[in-house]
Amino acid sequence: MSNITFTMIKPDAVADGHIGAILGKIAEDGFKIKAMKLTQLTVADAKRFYEVHAERPFYGELVEFMSSGPIVAAVLEKNNAVEDFRTLIGSTNPAEAAEGTIRKMFARNIGENAVHGSDSDENALIEAKFHFSGREIF
Fold first, then answer.
1. Sheet holding 4-9: strands in order across?
2. Candidates 18, 53, 116, 131; catalytic one
3. What is the rounded distance in angstroms from the CA atom of residue 133 to the CA atom of residue 69?
4. 98: DSSP letter
5. Strand pairing partners for 9?
6. 0.85 exceeded by the pTM?
7. Most buried in the list 26, 77, 98, 99, measured by CB within 10 Å?
8. How confident is the model at residue 134 (pLDDT cuts 50, 70, 90)?
């Protein structure tokens, strides 16, 4: 079990002005921010980041959406970080997400669902390294 996870506040939540509220929920849940930046994925970046989904029918829409505007990328630390963060963000479909979860509160729909969260300890490390150099993570 790793003590870090990776998240992105997606273009929909950034455009809707939810950065502060989402970061507040993350802090309230006991996560420490180890690295964070406002950035924008290029189409090539989004294709590489989500290449695991390249064969899925939603891949093109996902790449287009994730490169459509600024995101906030962050590395978070907490015991049991990946699992606890997945619980905090809720189901991919906000209509099915538990009350009080980030996606229930801030997602527009299943495609524009406010935040990304790593799905495993291994992917958390890969995703963190995709966005941050070692000297940017504290």
1. 32-39, 71-77, 4-9, 115-117
2. 116
3. 22
4. P
5. 72, 115
6. yes
7. 26
8. confident
To the query of whether residue 131 is one of the catalytic residues in this protein, the response is: no
Residues 6+ apart with CB under 8 A from 77: 3, 4, 31, 32, 33, 34
**What is the identity of the amino acid at 106?**
F
Tens digits of residue pLDDT in 19-31: 999 999 999 999 9
**What is the average pLDDT across 2-18?**
96
Who contacts 74 (Cβ-Cβ below 8 Å, separation ≥6)? Answer: 6, 7, 8, 9, 26, 33, 34, 35, 36, 37
> For 71, which DSSP code?
E
* Residue 117, CA distances (Å) to 4, 123, 136 in order: 11, 10, 19
Phi, psi (deg, nearest 5) at residue 22: -70, -45
Q: Are 34 and 132 in contact (CB under 8 A)?
A: no
Q: Give the separation between CA 43 and CA 23, rounded to whole angstroms.
A: 26
